[in-house]
Amino acid sequence: MEAKCTTAPHNENNALPVRDNETPSPGLTDARGLAEALCPDPRSRPCLRTVRRWQEMRLIPFLKIGKKVMFDPVQVRRALDARFTIRAK
Question: What predicted TM-score, i.e. pTM, was given to this entire model?
């Protein structure tokens, strides 16, 4: 059976915490850490080049601190969910 990386949580057990409520963010991470946070399974994980392309296309939010580029996994998950979720009519 093949494990797939899903961007939209389907139930409350695997939903990511919401920043606006009282649950804190897990913290900032680099591109490699972001890929691991989005998809824990290495077989379905996006490559580093894909994460950088999403950044370049401004599909995901990022912070640039000096020369370092950092990502908040919770905000990135929300941005991907909003961008790639198909809503029923």
Answer: 0.66
